[in-house]
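lol so apparently i was supposed to do this last week
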Amino acid sequence: MTTYAGEYLDLLPEPPAGRVTAAFRADVARAVGPGGLITEPAQLRTYECDGLTGYRVTPALVVLPATTEEVAAVVRLCARDGVPFVARGAGTGLSGGALPVADGIVIGLARMRAVLSVDVDDQRAVVQPGVTNAGISAAVAPHDLYFAPDPSSQVVCTIGGNVAENSGGAHCLKYGFTTNHVLALTFVTADGDVVQLGGDAPDPVGPDLRAVVLGSEGTLGVVTEITVRLLRRPEAVRTLVADFADAEDAGNAVSDIVAAGIVPAAVEMLDELAIDACERAVQAGYTPGCPAALVVELDGVAAEVEDEFERVQEICRRNRTTHVRIAADPEERARVWKGRKAAFAAMGRISPDYFVQDGVIPRTRLGSTLTRIRQMSEQAGLRVANVFHAGDGNLHPLVLYDGAVPGEAERAEHLATAIVELCVEQGGSITGEHGVGSDKACSMPKMFGPDDLTVMARVRAAFDPQGICNPGKVLPTPRLCGERPGPHRPHPLEAAGVIERL
Ligand SMILES: Cc1cc2nc3c(=O)[nH]c(=O)nc-3n(C[C@H](O)[C@H](O)[C@H](O)COP(=O)(O)OP(=O)(O)OC[C@H]3O[C@@H](n4cnc5c(N)ncnc54)[C@H](O)[C@@H]3O)c2cc1C
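anyway here it is w/ flavin-adenine dinucleotide bound
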């Protein structure tokens, strides 16, 4: 076994602790001015977690800068005093990416929410990081333009968070993820310099540092301006919901649609539990008791859409669909999507608590993986609802549990982890779009070997040698993955061959 302590872990310095002194606070207050600082303990607690509420840390201070220059000034003070910082958008992340560091600060981008410019002819806009995803499309809608990536949280989540997570959404099957729609970034480095990454040209000269920052989960610096690509609204959109008696048939229909050369705008799947929850929450008109439903949307040139829409229905029939509902008008289409987009929140209607997972599998293994998840759910005695981006093979199993029942949360967490590991065994990934964050850092060695982790740590150290920028996220450390009490079990990093017990 190789000892990787020197190669990999030494590149991740322990974040310095206890540096938020009175002098630091005073300097930060001067940098951001009145209204830019939160110090009240009760208010600080509202920043203690993101959407992954099981992890909570109250930050020492929350700073709300209003300009790129203020962000840079705050980061320079952090670099001067060795204070760890975590950037935060709306806090809707589901992997604990915006979890604060004890004795560190949160840099909230909520005050930076202006659409700075819209270039209709060149189809791009420059926005601040606190603008919501849906807010971009709303701002450019009068020009018949929109921003394509559409996370289900789009009404609330920010473009800064989308960039950091390289977020996806239902329509990313056809249009690609956030990275495909961002041309340039204004970026504050971990020592407080302001740099431009990318540019107006689709393929700027030199290494693509814009792409390095996309999806880096706030571990390299703070994004303060984003140039996004805008698309023209398609001429035609057709949407259907196809019911199936068997999830395997629905999975096969997805594979057949793609194999036929059709690229739908979206193909989403919901199982019986998810349908039940959505119907109770928003009455989207899904069929109660249906074991699996596909939401398929096609968009583009009208004649092509009509032709492919017929072919999709034929493929669904060949795979034994029990019922096809076609959205008759934009209102019905909106109702279908309201159900799908409300699915996570709707779980509250059928369970006191849930863990949402985010794993990827090859699309062709959808049917068999869902069968295996059902078996694992039965063995664990816990219900699992499935609602996911079927076209991308991006699963979102929702493990339902009752936190008031002793031991149930632990069993649910165990099952959720086992499902993600099943995805890796199937040739997939531990995350499709929600990121690694705090939640899945310890699962990284399931996918990556010591050499891979070392390369990632080197990139991070090149941007942030002091290790003050969102420390403890993405890359596993013994401190982060901490050994659980009880009899000796190999540490996850030890089991993966990354470190060894001396
Ligand atoms: C109901 C629900 C549905 C969701 N559906 C989807 C979905 O369909 N697809 C999907 O991809 N995700 C989804 N998510 C997850 C989440 O909304 C996304 O990850 C989103 O991009 C997070 O944005 P945010 O503004 O809330 O970021 P936060 O949660 O505040 O932060 C997320 C990460 O980004 C970093 N960050 C934030 N702003 C900046 C910045 N300006 N510069 C540098 N780093 C920054 C943070 O440090 C953190 O690591 C869903 C979440 C919920 C609650």
